[in-house]
Design a protein that fits this description.
This protein has 14 helices and eleven strands. With 338 residues, the protein is α/β, with parallel strands linked by helices. Helix 9 links the parallel strand 9 and strand 10.
């Protein structure tokens, strides 16, 4: 939702009709309501592998009914094989954004989509449909805030440690694991003021951790991150968002992605495949009073040559299909959208 929020607003201001199709998963529906964005629900998120398979046909049928009613001239998604397949069947062009490389999903949408837009740091090659851009998904919605903060020299002094836990039910999470309960307990102990530690979890927390639960409306999360001095979590998206905002981030997950590797190289993010060493790294970062300001400066430098993804997408959609040809023949054209 965040990836396309600014894009949807910009297109709507130019007279486009925009509709979000969404699975009722996590905070998706609540976020769309909070931002006043039009949407239709085409299914719910299933947890077991077999229920995901059995519900796929129902989701695609519901999505086809949405397209038939809305009559789009173009569709765009973040790696949705549901939308790419239904768009192909409905005979409407489909654009896919990809940055994680989950092949179990890519193989299902690759034959049906018309274009795949990926960051330069993305590690896979998908052939003639692929267009690379100098940026990241996060530059579609965090980019403007970072620049404003840098220009104002507003390097604040946040005081909260945020722990992020995922529920491990996504198809690409099978066999994965993250923070152990003992490491979570140790992290809580090393924070001087335990009122300054918050846990954002996709799964129900045990009784002993419920008092640390972050209880805010989903649309206020990015505003809350301005209070965070350290992120420790299993979720790649939030880890990457924190790194973009100049918040020291410890990402604990055996899975990686191009954006994660780029942020590790820029020393904005620290990637651990297991819990081993996480507490020591957290202590090191929390004991250095200059870490936060250093990360703020590094984040600005990290973004200074990136494009604004929302602006690129706005042009790409309005100029389709000519935009595809232009980007293939002259990739430097994207520099018009910084």
């Amino acid at each position: 939702m965040h990836l396309f929020r600014y894009l949807a607003t910009a297109l709507h201001a130019k007279g486009w009709e925009v509709l979000f199709s969404v699975r009722a998963k996590g905070e998706n529906v609540e976020l769309l309501k909070d931002y006043g964005l039009p949407f239709e629900v085409y299914g719910t998120s299933r947890k077991s592998f077999f229920s995901k398979i059995f519900s796929a046909f129902q989701k695609k049928l519901a999505l086809y009914q949405i397209l038939k009613k809305f009559k789009p001239t173009l569709t765009i998604s973040h790696g949705s094989f549901y939308l790419s397949q239904v768009s192909w069947f409905y005979r409407v062009p489909n654009i896919t954004l990809e940055d994680t490389g989950n092949m179990e999903q890519i193989l299902l949408y690759l034959p049906f989509t018309n274009a795949i837009l990926t960051p330069e740091s993305y590690h896979r090659n998908h052939g003639k449909k692929q267009i690379r851009y100098n940026g990241f998904h996060e530059t579609a919605y965090i980019y403007p805030d970072i620049l404003k903060q840098a220009q104002a020299n507003n390097l604040s002094s946040p005081d909260t440690v945020l722990i992020r836990l995922v529920d491990w039910t996504a198809s690409h999470d099978l066999g994965q694991e993250g923070l152990s309960s003992s490491v979570i307990s140790q992290l809580i102990r090393i924070v001087d003021d335990q009122s300054k530690i918050k846990i954002l979890s996709e799964k129900p927390l045990p009784e002993n951790l419920k008092l640390y639960s972050l209880d805010i409306p989903p649309h206020q999360l990015h505003e809350f991150l301005r209070k965070v001095k350290l992120y420790v979590g299993e979720g790649a998206t939030l880890a990457s968002e924190c790194a973009h905002m100049g918040i020291p981030a410890i990402y604990v997950n055996s899975r990686s992605a191009g954006v994660i590797q780029a942020q590790v190289k820029a020393a904005l993010l620290f990637h651990f495949t297991t819990s081993e060493g996480v507490v020591e790294k957290a202590i090191q970062l929390l004991s250095d009073p200059s870490v936060f300001s250093q990360h703020q400066i590094k984040a600005v430098k990290f973004l200074e040559n990136n494009i604004n993804l929302s602006k690129l997408l706005e042009w790409f959609i309005e100029s389709w299909p000519e935009s595809f040809r232009i980007m293939k023949e002259n990739p430097e054209y994207q520099n018009n959208f910084k």
